[in-house]
Design goal:
Number of helices: 24
Radius of gyration: 27 Å
Strand content: 15-25%
Helix content: 25-40%
Length: 637
């Protein structure tokens, strides 16, 4: 009998049908099932939760059993009129919540939800309420969460005066000591995460303002008293709770925003293996499209298009049914060269309508001009970074950029390719940014060749490092290679994604411009890449590598090199560190770094993570090299 908990209520706010799918873990694919844990580990969410408990000491209701949690909460509350409880349990009818922190002083109750989201009083865009007392959309999920808890506690204890709070990371605070994040250790036992502080936490940290308590009473009351398509908050919640307990679906209309990234969408191979797809069930019921049609390109896949809902409202679900003229021209300024956003969207539609499933569409003149401006040797760089809630060093603020790894390929004017450099730091409690920047400078400072990256991430990281770098000479060098807002600064760094957006579209990527989607696409269609990388040439003297030996990147089994990365397994227990087989995307890299910082793992396990990270990051820069190669050798750019 799955009661409506705060997590299920949050699912309902996204789409109430998700409550049904989420309750049936054994049958329905759920791509978010482990993502929340991984995200919290990478960003330090568990550490924030433990710090909150230490800052508000009290009794912990330490059980996953609902009945035991309810009885233990009642027992602790009966002990004294003033009490602080962690994970207190409250039930009313079909509702159940566990409160992060509850402080009881007589009938006055502070109900505190702990979040690792950052908050700053001086940042107007970061405020919870905007003009006319409206809740900012970025804060709505957090307010809905604490509103539901407030609602349940008030029903369970009508005589209590419940005041809701969020306990957030104060982005205007600074660390009072070095190595705060290293004070905490995490391990996972089943569905439970255990966070410990084996060496204790200094009083300076507990007395700091790293966490800030925000009264959200006004926002919560607004949520509790709003109209929800003719229903009150309570009526809607009760309807969802009845459906959750009964195991029935709450039917909800399909929509562009909520369906685009639905976590209950199973792939064809998952469905063949017996998994159910909530996305397919919803779309079949709403549109009567077949499974094959739902698997075909949908309007949801139109790149960066904000009028998808308008197409759905016109019952245009399949991309092949959309006329390019249906794509409304945006008012945004046209780029200096190449396609506008609208033209790129129309190109995507034309490819589907014309049955062009594989042939790249190229603005050849624009692509040729863009590449002609590059200066040899070409430097291809990729960074792995993270942002952590609890700062690494004294004086640092929360969520600063931490650059822990880069890879660097060089292409000479004669086309010769080599993996030239790599750098990584997994040392616990060490701020790597300055050493990272020095190593990068040493790698590319000896010539004036163009430095290519993919998307804005690398520029953002370097800008952040320059702003906090204690070495003025190093900071000045970083700024010299970065374009500045006033138009000054270097022109050395070139964003390959900007070239993609303006001059190159690949139908096999299905609207995605992620390098992870582009790479397997070009390997399937590029004559040059097929000829070169079917042979085990990579990691040989003709194409040196730091981490691979005589590797062929195109095989009979796959044209996706990221799927070929080795499984990440413990050298001691032969158990996986993650539910993913390998480190093959940026989120997994962040989690891997977090494990080295926070988890109780051995040196052997750290070394296994290091080896996997080095291969992953090297593949990222090789992917950029391959993209440049197909532009040059297949399209004459």
């Amino acid at each position: 009998m799955p009661l409506l908990t705060k997590s299920r209520y949050r699912q309902g706010c996204e789409c109430p049908t998700k409550i049904f799918y989420g309750n049936d873990r054994n049958h329905y694919t759920n791509t978010k099932s482990d993502n929340e844990f991984l995200k919290a580990l990478a960003e330090g969410g568990f550490q924030v939760g433990e710090l909150a408990r230490l800052m508000y000491p009290g009794s912990l209701v330490d059980t996953l059993s609902t009945d035991k949690a309810l009885s233990e909460t009642a027992r602790v509350l009966a002990e004294a009129d003033t009490k602080t409880i962690h994970e207190a349990a409250f039930r009313h009818a079909n509702f159940l919540i566990r409160a992060d922190i509850l402080i009881k002083k007589g009938n006055a109750i502070d109900l505190i939800e702990v979040k690792s989201k950052s908050y700053g009083d001086s940042d107007p865009q970061g405020s919870i309420l905007k003009a006319k007392n409206e809740i900012r959309s970025a804060w709505m999920p957090y307010i809905q969460d604490i509103a539901f808890q407030t609602f349940v506690v008030r029903l369970a204890h009508p005589t209590w005066e419940v005041r809701p709070y969020l306990l957030l990371v104060n982005k205007e605070a600074s660390a009072p000591i070095d190595g705060i994040n290293s004070l905490f250790r995490c391990r996972k036992e089943g569905d439970k995460v255990i966070t410990t502080t084996p060496n204790g936490v200094p009083d300076a940290v507990l007395a700091s303002d790293l966490l800030i308590k925000i009264d959200v009473s006004d926002a919560v009351e607004k949520v509790l008293t709003s109209d929800y398509e003719g229903e009150t908050f309570q009526a809607r919640a009760e309807r969802w709770a009845i459906a959750s307990v009964a195991g029935t679906k709450v039917v909800s209309p399909i929509g562009a925003s909520k369906c685009s990234n639905c976590e209950f969408r199973a792939t064809a191979s998952e469905r063949a293996g017996g998994k159910l797809s909530g996305f397919h069930e919803c779309w079949n019921a709403a549109t009567r499209l077949s499974v094959d049609e739902i698997d075909s390109p949908l309007v949801l896949q139109i790149w960066n298009y904000r009028q998808k809902q308008a197409l759905l409202d016109q019952r245009k679900y399949l991309l092949r049914k959309v006329d390019p003229a249906d794509i409304v021209e945006t008012k945004s300024e046209a780029p200096p060269s190449g396609w506008s956003a609208t033209e790129r969207q129309r190109t995507q539609v034309r490819c589907v309508r014309d049955g062009n499933n594989a042939k790249p569409v190229v603005d050849e003149g624009g692509l040729r001009a863009a590449l002609s401006r590059l200066v040899f040797p070409l430097h291809f760089i990729d960074f792995e970074t993270t942002r952590c809630a609890l700062p690494f060093h004294k004086g640092e603020t929360p969520y600063g950029n931490i650059a822990f790894q880069f890879s660097h390929h060089i292409v000479e004017a004669d086309g010769q390719v080599r993996h030239a450099n790599e750098w990584i730091s997994l040392a616990r409690g060490i701020q790597p940014n300055e050493s990272f920047a020095r190593a990068l400078r040493d790698a590319i400072v000896n010539d004036s060749g163009s430095t290519l990256h993919y998307a804005a991430h690398e520029r953002t990281v370097l800008k952040d490092i320059a702003e906090t770098c204690p070495d003025p000479e190093l900071a000045a060098w970083i700024r010299s290679i970065l374009p500045q807002q006033d138009g000054t600064g270097g022109t050395r760094m070139v964003d390959m994604k900007e070239i993609i957006l303006r001059h190159y579209y690949h139908p096999l990527a299905r609207g995605s411009n992620s390098l992870k989607a582009i790479l397997p696409s070009i390997l399937q269609t590029s004559t040059y890449l097929k000829r070169k990388y079917k042979a085990p040439i990579y990691g040989t003297p003709s194409m040196p590598s730091h981490n691979f030996t005589a590797t062929a990147w195109i095989t009979e089994q796959t044209t996706d090199p990221y799927s070929m990365l080795p499984k990440l397994e413990s050298t001691e227990t032969e158990e996986r560190f993650f539910n993913d087989d390998s480190i093959n995307q940026g989120g997994a890299a962040m989690v891997a770094y977090a494990k080295c910082q926070f988890a109780d793992i051995s040196i052997k396990e750290v070394n296994a993570i290091r080896a996997a990270l080095l291969k992953y990051c090297e593949l990222d820069t090789l992917a950029m090299v391959m993209l440049w190669q197909t532009w040059k050798y297949d399209h004459g750019a």
